Amino acid sequence: MVEVSTDELYGEKKTRMDFKFIQWELRDGTARLTLNRPPHNSLNTEMLMEMALALESLHEAPHLKVVLIRAGKDSKSFCDGVEIPEYTAARVFQMLDAFARVFAASIEIGKPIVVAVNGQAVGGGCELAAFGDMVIATPKARFLQPEIEKLGMFPPFATSVFPYIIGPKRAMEMLLTGEPLTAEEAVTLGLVNKVVRESELESTVEKLLARITEHSAPVLAIAKRAIYEGLGMSLRDSLRHSYDLLLNELYKLEDAQEGLRAIKEKRKPQWKNR
Asked: DSSP label at 59?
């Protein structure tokens, strides 16, 4: 790994995808972002900027279809959140700005994001899991936001995202008490899609990635937009918005026409990702 200085990251001078705190691999239609700061993958501003830059680079990778976020094999936790020195008055603005870039990129890149959680997801780590479009966890996973209890401050991303995911009353309980959710509770609340045994995590995730990468990249991106952009709308407006995306964007794609031809010709479609 090549060490990247904070000045290079903030100056946008970095052109190579060589990182200090994450591993970044692009293959088989999948971008794999591995948290690589063992044992607990504590977040600092530089690590968050690395994640943001990696995700933002996918704007220039139309052939990639899905993102996987996971912890490295030497990790004891998925991520135990932002390390304490980043909360100081001198550094907190840069940390929050970097976190906001990760959040914005996770939405704007147009790729579905799969998160694999084996171990604790605490604070900022829990928020990273919440950014995922699909989350696969093991029974070892725990999800908690202890900022109010431990630090005397509230987590801004969690207070915005969790009411949408688990509802305002459970979000209140989770954030105000700091009590952890087990993996099974997280499934019940809709934070996690599936819980599998630790020995089955990798194979389950790979099967999911393989299924997603069978599809057209721009169709996946438009479908993700339709889901998230419709969240804040009435049902009537959400339907109109989906119709608009379908008729005015999706039908202009070569892949949409290829899908129709393939059905008529009784063959498997050959996606061109455009």
From this structure: G
> Phi and psi dihedrals of 83, rounded to 5?
-70, 150
CATH of domain 217-264: 1.10.12
Q: What sections of the chain are H helices per DSSP?
A: 6-10, 45-56, 92-108, 124-131, 156-166, 168-177, 183-189, 201-212, 217-229, 235-248, 254-264
Beta partners for residue 66, in sequence order: 30
Which tokens hold the place of 259? 């899908």
CA distance 115 to 65: 15
Q: How far apart are CA 159 and CA 35, in angstroms?
A: 24
Instruction: Report whether the peptide linkage leading into residue 39 is cis, meaning its omega lies within 30 degrees of zero.
Output: yes
Per 3-state DSSP, what percentage of the chain is helix, strand, and coil (rounded to 5)? 50, 15, 35
Our CA dihedral for 68, 74, 78, 81, rounded to 10 degrees, sits at -120
Is the pTM higher than 0.85? The answer reads yes
Q: How far apart are the first and last CA of the chain?
A: 34
- The domain ranges of the chain are 6-212, 217-264
DSSP letter (8 states) at residue 180: P
Mean pLDDT of 54-72: 94
Whether 6-212 shares its CATH topology with 217-264 is answered no
* Side-chain half-sphere CA neighbours of 2 within 13 A: 9
> How many residues belong to the chain?
274
Residues 34-61: tens digit of each pLDDT: 999 999 999 999 999 999 999 999 988 8
Q: Which CATH class is domain 6-212?
A: alpha beta
pLDDT in tens, 239-265: 999 999 999 999 999 999 999 999 999
